Amino acid sequence: MINVDRCPSLLIEGHTTYSPKALKDLFYGRSVNHILGFSSPNSGNSTTYTSVKNAGRLSLSGAQSKFGLILDEDNNLQYSPKDIPSTYILKPRPLGYHLINHEYCAANENLTMQMASQVYGIETAYNGLCFYDDGQPAYLTRRFDIHENGKYAQEDFASLMGFSKDNGGSDFKYNKGSYEECADVIRKNVKAAMIDILRFFQVVLYNFITLNDDAHLKNFSLIKRNGEYRLSPAYDLINTSLQIYEPRLFALEKGLFKEGMHLSDTRHLTYKDFAELGRRIGLPEKLYMQEILRFSTPNKAADQIISRSYLSPELQKSYMQSMHYRQFMLRPN
To answer: Quick check: 54 pLDDT over 60?
Structure first.
């Protein structure tokens, strides 16, 4: 069992369960225990197997299994029955052979999401860690596409670009499109386009410094609220270098630009590439250079939240060192 001595959502020290702010953000202020009342799907428990089978796996992209949960009248998280829309998404520990550090995947995502929000001001889906009754950690996030009267319209960038397995192959979310073309999607569909293009640019920079090479077309989306589309809160942010054997620079094979990039030699990637992206997507030079400087400068608050995460000390060190190196790569001369 992991020793819970800081908020398992916001990573604030001095809490043995969710902090009051985490309860407000993640559970609408309801008092929810960080210990789930059921076993992990990997436990082999027959009761758990039946519950998971009845709940069904969510049809979301990614290597991890994802399950829908609801919060019942007694403030307990439960698998969502088939006829009731889920309000939370639960990610158990992944089992894929191509992954490493399986037991820290949830902590990695929680940290990367919290650092994006708390340190860099990126709007993210509310999230936290929870623990099965056998002590295994899992990642929990509140669905931002659900409201009390139904569901907001949401379209990921692969769909908005017209790509699917039928016309793009099994890896369409990786080998179609570029981050420059993602900005075109925002420009075409969002009324206040430049606000969201800036938000998108910030996420691209953040993904680079935190080594998230899984920011594919389905991990960006537009959500319709009050009759207008806007860029959705960021989700699925994770330092993939801690979880896979051969991380890459970008999830999208074309990289930053429509015409693609030559990425065989990583030393050739500098702040100038991101400055060129900022210029191409229409941001003022002063603004995109300001953002590049902000994300390329080591931040004490970022180092501190990494050290408070539920990663092992070794992975905390690796996360911090790799992030500092990426920031060095990004730093203007």
So the answer is: no
